[in-house]
């Protein structure tokens, strides 16, 4: 119907008052009245004024064997794109400078509702990660993607990063590099392909920061498989890496696997893993010395570049600055996690 009559903004089922009201609110938002609205138009958020998390879906269709999220939160339920974009726009109008897109599985956005078309600014937009990214890229603020499961279509957002529409930052949890362990984890099982893709991403967007997380000490992980993981780290040269020792969360399928490892082995593997990554991270940050980076200031003397997500990554240190401002910083020195420089 909408194809035949593009001026029709929404089609609902009969007697579907909530859907009609939703469409009215999406296309004709009620003007904000501070005397009657107790909640600000951007909603209530617990982050500082200049950044906000944008939750696009809840739940997950994967069944990674170490994870109990699907059993607690259920299968993926995507929020309609019109609603997500309206929230993003309200946040930007309220002064937010950085939107952090979060979910349990950002790249699966819309799969549950067959990429249903919604509306934003009066035009049709599909409930799909790439279309969401393009639309968010129009808001003129930093947009950072988290929890991106490594599906092939993730490659489509890299050119948006190269064009400056999205922050050149990708948080993709790879979890391991050994094909056998990945299979036991029920994750995509090809480290070779991952390396190829990382190379391709860097060819399109050389400034991309790749963040990932890994699990060491998974049940049955042999010395050789752990070494494979360390070799992968050396090859992949990831920028930001988190590492967890496998912990048998109650209800996780992986607990039934044979070969649970003693705590001290898990611990020792994590230490070795972090040592290798620290060397890589230090070298990568060292290569930034002498260059100038735009930072978003979190507080006097402290900011974050495109490579630094709040609370989980490193930071950029300097003197002065006003919270919530974008400034350029010339980098003078680096350590394994942070950069130090001067405001320009
Ligand atoms: S680890 Fe992530 S992708 Fe896997 S089941 Fe849990 S939430 Fe889903």
Largest sheet: 5 strands, mixed, barrel
Beta-strand portion reads 15-25%
The H/E string reads HEEHEHEEEHEHEHHEHEHEEEEE
Q: What's the number of helices?
A: 9
Strand order of the largest sheet: 11-12-13-15-14
The quaternary organization reads as single chain
Annotate the secondary structure layout:
Blueprint: H1 17-27, E1 51-55, E2 57-58, H2 69-73, E3 77-78, H3 81-93, E4 98-102, E5 117-120, E6 123-126, H4 129-136, E7 142-145, H5 158-162, E8 169-171, H6 179-185, H7 191-204, E9 209-216, H8 223-236, E10 240-245, H9 263-286, E11 292-299, E12 302-304, E13 316-317, E14 326-334, E15 339-343
The protein binds iron/sulfur cluster.
Provide an overview of this structure:
The chain contains nine helices and 15 strands. It has 344 residues and is α/β, with parallel strands linked by helices. A five-stranded mixed β-barrel has the order 11-12-13-15-14. It is globular. Bound molecules: iron/sulfur cluster.
What descriptive keywords fit this protein?
single chain; 344 residues; alpha/beta; five-stranded mixed beta barrel; three-stranded parallel beta sheet; 9 helices; binds iron/sulfur cluster
Summarize the structure in short.
The chain is an alpha/beta fold and 344 residues long.
């Amino acid at each position: 119907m909408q194809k035949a009559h593009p001026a029709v903004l929404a089609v609902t089922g009969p007697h579907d008052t909530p859907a009609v009201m939703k469409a009215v609110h999406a296309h004709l938002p009620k003007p904000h009245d501070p005397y009657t609205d107790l909640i600000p138009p951007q909603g209530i958020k617990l982050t500082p004024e200049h950044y906000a998390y944008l939750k696009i879906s809840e739940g997950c269709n994967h069944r990674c064997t170490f994870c109990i999220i699907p059993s607690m939160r259920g299968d993926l339920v995507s929020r309609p794109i019109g609603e997500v974009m309206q929230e993003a726009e309200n946040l930007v109008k309220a002064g937010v400078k950085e939107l952090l897109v979060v979910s349990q599985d950002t790249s699966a956005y819309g799969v549950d509702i067959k990429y249903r078309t919604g509306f934003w600014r009066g035009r049709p937009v599909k409930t799909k990660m790439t279309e969401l990214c393009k639309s968010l890229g129009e808001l003129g603020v930093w947009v950072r993607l988290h929890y991106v499961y490594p599906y092939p279509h993730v490659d489509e957002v890299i050119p948006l990063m190269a064009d400056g529409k999205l922050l050149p930052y990708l948080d993709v949890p790879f979890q391991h590099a050994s094909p056998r362990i990945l299979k036991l984890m029920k994750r995509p099982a090809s480290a070779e392909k991952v390396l190829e893709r990382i190379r391709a991403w860097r060819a399109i967007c050389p400034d991309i920061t790749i963040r990932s997380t890994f699990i060491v000490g998974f049940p049955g992980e042999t010395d050789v498989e752990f070494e494979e993981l360390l070799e992968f780290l050396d090859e992949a040269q990831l920028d930001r890496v988190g590492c967890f020792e496998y912990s048998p969360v109650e209800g996780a399928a992986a607990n039934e696997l044979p070969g649970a490892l003693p705590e001290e082995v898990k611990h020792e593997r994590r230490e070795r893993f972090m040592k290798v990554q620290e060397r890589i991270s230090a070298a990568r940050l060292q290569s930034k010395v002498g260059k100038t980076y735009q930072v978003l200031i979190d507080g006097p003397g402290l900011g974050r570049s495109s490579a630094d997500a709040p609370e989980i990554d490193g930071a950029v240190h300097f003197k002065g600055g006003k919270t919530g401002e974008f400034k350029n910083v010339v980098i003078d020195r680096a350590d394994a996690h942070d950069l130090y420089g001067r405001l320009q």
